């Protein structure tokens, strides 16, 4: 059984570990190998410790099972005046992918946006190379509206291979 709950500072380590594992599995080629093969776990844990200590206008939700964190989503409310709230991260543990948990998390984020943001509009950026994620977002009503390029993770130069293309996926009327 998986239940969605709000994440807190004590969850930073587990969320960071899942985030790093997901990047290592799905962002190869776009992210530099030296970054992914290095201490990306510590990097992500530090990021999540900071985010969860001072959430500001954002929320992080997670799903847990007997093995720990099964997935999480992070949404920043009212990030963009045109596109609305920004789903900054959505990751599901690899052994649970394609089981509906991503849909549960994204729908939960959509509910939170409707409760806390000025409009239900929601968007995210996805690596163009990540075809399974793109198809997933489209199945949930996301529309590709803009092309861009990835930013260096954590703003640290050299963590990318060149300028990986991205797509902005938007839900102008909200998710779910």
TrEMBL record:
InterPro entries (alphabetical): Acyl_CoA_acyltransferase, Bact_Acetyltransf, GNAT_dom
Keywords, alphabetical: Acyltransferase, Transferase
PROSITE patterns referenced in this protein's UniProt entry, alphabetically: GNAT
Gene Ontology MF annotations: acyltransferase activity, transferring groups other than amino-acyl groups
This protein's record includes keyword Transmembrane helix: no
All residue ranges annotated as the N-acetyltransferase domain in the record: 2-174
Residue ranges of the TM segments: none
Superkingdom to which the source organism belongs: Bacteria
Keyword Transferase set for record: yes
The protein's name in its UniProt record: N-acetyltransferase domain-containing protein
Species assigned in the record: Streptomyces smaragdinus
Taxonomic classification: Bacteria, Bacillati, Actinomycetota, Actinomycetes, Kitasatosporales
């Amino acid at each position: 059984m998986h239940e969605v709950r709000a994440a807190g500072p004590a969850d930073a380590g587990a969320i960071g570990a899942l985030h790093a594992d997901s990047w290592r599995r799905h962002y190869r080629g776009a992210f530099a190998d030296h970054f992914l093969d290095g201490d990306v776990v510590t990097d992500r844990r530090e990021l999540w410790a900071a985010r969860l200590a001072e959430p500001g206008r954002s929320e992080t939700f997670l799903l847990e099972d007997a093995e720990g964190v099964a997935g999480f989503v992070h949404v920043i409310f009212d990030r963009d005046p045109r596109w609305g709230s920004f789903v900054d991260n959505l990751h599901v543990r690899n052994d649970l992918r394609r089981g509906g948990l991503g849909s549960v998390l994204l729908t939960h984020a959509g509910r939170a946006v409707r409760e806390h943001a000025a409009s239900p509009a929601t968007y995210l950026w996805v690596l163009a190379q990540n075809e399974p994620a793109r198809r997933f977002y489209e199945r949930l009503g996301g529309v590709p509206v803009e092309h861009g390029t990835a930013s260096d993770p954590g703003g640290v130069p050299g963590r990318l291979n060149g300028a990986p293309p991205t797509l902005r996926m938007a839900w102008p009327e909200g998710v779910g």
